[in-house]
Amino acid sequence: MELKDKTILITGSTDGVGHMVARRLGASGARVLVHGRDATRGKAAVAEIEAIGGKAELLIADLSSLAEVRRLAEAVRARTDRLDILINNAGIGTAGAKRQVSADGYELRFAVNYLAGFLLTSKLLPLLRASAPARIVNVASAGQQAIDFGDVMLTRSYDGVRAYCQSKLAQILFTIDLAQELKGTNVTVNSLHPASYMDTTMVRQAGVTPWSSVEQGADAILNLATSPALEGRSGLYFDGQRESRADAQAYDEKARRQLRALSLDLVGQSPASVTSKELHS
Fold first, then answer.
1. Whose C-alpha in 61, 62, 154, 273 is 20 to 30 A from the C-alpha of 38?
2. More confident: 275 or 213
3. Is 164 a catalytic residue?
4. Predicted model pTM
5. Domain 7-280 adopts which CATH fold?
6. 42-98, pLDDT tens digit by residue?
């Protein structure tokens, strides 16, 4: 794909694999919208991209707050009249044994890793459609566990690894569901596991010795974002650069409908088939 003058938003791009992807896209001539929570790190990331001749702008938002996700979408629309690629990369790893909640009271990994991307994507879809051909890339994981719709927020039996794996599978269900919605629009959406245990802050905080490079993960993300071979292909899951199969629940239409209804309810867009008492108990 010719990247010169393309506008690309990458969430979580002030550190780790997101930062590497942003640098490489900037070096290829794209206009990169860098997102992060920390202004100091964000300014440093923008300066790095500009130092190699790229164009970058910084957008600050804490994705653990749905209000800030909405403000991020508004900021993107205010900065640009087109969005060629959206890469939902920001996330929280498995570290921490204690259950945490977001600003909105939802289990934190589900909120940040999945729900923030669900809402941001929905808010930016009109811009992506207007910019078609456009692409959406959801950075998920090979670590996947089926969603328990009886206790999505893991209030009864919390485990950080389960929370992470459930949130990552939710991204993949969303990818397949959205691909069907976007048929005929020339906007594609795919998901991937970029690489196993990359040398990132997230992996080190989990106490794991890295055994893949950030460059390897960036290659996989860039493949989905820019490869001509993926033109017109949508609703797919990749393990690295190889097309693969996700957990069986991803291909369960009923589960995808349940997740969509729940997600719309959680972001305040539509009622779901679960009660507020069940969600917050």
1. 154
2. 213
3. yes
4. 0.92
5. Rossmann fold (3.40.50)
6. 999 999 999 999 999 999 999 999 999 999 999 999 999 999 999 999 999 887 779
Residues 149/274, Cβ–Cβ less than 8 Å = yes
- Going 60 to 66 to 71 to 73, the CA torsion angle's sign is positive
Going by the DSSP 8-state scheme, the letter that residue 115 receives in this structure is: I
H helix runs in 81-239, sequence order:
108-109, 116-130, 160-181, 201-205, 214-226
8 Å CB contact between 46 and 125: no
Model confidence band, residue 206 (pLDDT cutoffs 50, 70, 90): low
Classify strands 187-193 and 7-10 as parallel, antiparallel or unpaired.
unpaired
DSSP bridge partners of 193: 239
186: alpha, beta or left, given left = phi > 0 and alpha = psi -120 to 50? left
46 vs 51: CA distance, rounded Å: 9
Q: Looking at the DSSP assignment, which residues form a beta bridge with residue 244?
A: 237
pLDDT tens-digit profile of 178-187? 999 999 999 9
Q: At residue 2, what is the residue type?
A: E
Tokens read off for 152: 């999505």
Domain boundaries of the chain, sorted by first residue? 7-280
Cβ-contact 110, 100 below 8 angstroms: no
Which is catalytic among the residues 164, 197, 237, 251? 164
Distances (CA, A) of 63 to 127, 255, 263: 20, 25, 15
- Give the residue from 5, 241, 8 showing the smallest Cα distance to 135: 8
